[in-house]
UniProtKB/TrEMBL annotation:
It comes from Emberiza fucata. Residues 105-129 have a biased composition (Basic and acidic residues). It comes from the Eukaryota. PANTHER family: HEAT SHOCK 70 KDA PROTEIN 14, MYB_SANT-LIKE DNA-BINDING DOMAIN-CONTAINING PROTEIN. Residues 100-129 are annotated as: Disordered. Transmembrane segments: none annotated. Pfam families: Myb_DNA-bind_4. Residues 7-95 form the Myb/SANT-like DNA-binding domain. This is ZSC29 protein.
Amino acid sequence: VANEGGKHWTVNEVRALIRIWSDKNIQQQLEGTVRNKRIFEQVAARLQKFGIDRDWKQCRTKYKNLKHEYKSVKSAQDSGSTSKSMKFFNELDAILGHFTMEQASKSDNDESEKPPEWTEAKSEKDSVG
């Protein structure tokens, strides 16, 4: 239809993506891995059930963009600025807000709570290149 990015996401499409993303199971999978094509294939398949036709790349790009935008709004707010805002901030804050503090307090090499496949994915990533 359009270029690589495809057509713009509608409000309902983004809502559906966020609803799927808010699934604890999806969050846990996304949190521990960089190689996440398989997860976004699941997300795309679930969007299809809502009648939303997006491929895994579009889902991943939208996820990354939303996450990036959320982080920039959040850090602006943390520094006292109220000028920055975004449409789905509250929904994303419900998903991402509780991660930020947890992540900061955990040390990087604390593998004890992660399922073994996350540890494998991490070392696989580290050995590339």
